[in-house]
Amino acid sequence: MKSAIPVALTIAGSDCSAGAGIQADLKTFQHFGVHGLTAITCVVSETANIVRAVHPVPVDVVADQISLLLESFPVRAVKTGMLFSAPHVIAVAEILGRHRDVQLVVDPVMIASTGDSLLEPDAVTAYKSLLLPLARVITPNLHEADALLGEKIPDAQALESAALRLSAMFGTAVLLKGGHLDGPQCIDLLADQGEIHRFVADRIPVAGSHGTGCTLSAAITALLAMNIPLPRAVEMAKDYLGETLRLSYQFQSPCGAETLHALNQGTRFNNRGS
Question: Would the pTM of this model clear 0.85, i.e. be above it?
């Protein structure tokens, strides 16, 4: 009899260019040997260079997807990505609040790498009051952390204080991603139960970063589903993201007007020579 395969659920938007959102999450889950389930919150017309339109899925349809999957599969870990609106956040929080045994990773998707807003303004309040306190870990970038704190994080020296404050505010672990800071290295800090874990990596020069946040949070989710402790899960997820960046690629659009960038997500890197 084969051993059981861990199951993880992603609740997020669908990216038609397959670099972020549900598509990135599934490729990442597959890389780690985790069976991936999806509940789609919105359909996004986008590429790495532009967000053209966001089409929300009705809240009751989102809720039905999540409820059905949690009733039907032995889900060990859940991640949330783009939730779009306050009603979506409220519905997701209500359901996940009844499944506290499932480890939750919240990627508070607010702004795309293109600068386009991906979250309605009133949804931030719902995130802060209802969803973030349910999480095992939240994974904000600097812009999202600024919005959650209500003030700007000015430099690398302020990262530790900000991570600890966010952790205390929501009673959860916080992986504060410092990739938007200037400098030759990317510094991410994990604040977990009052302890700080620091992850430093050399900045990898790539043409774009579309999907990196989704990929990182999905990798953490997959590893938590495999019962990997959180600090080690973050370390392994960071290694995986680094490989997707190092092996990323570009191609020209048919009209020749733009060059598109893609992460090499889902590749079994230890078998890449086969």
Answer: yes
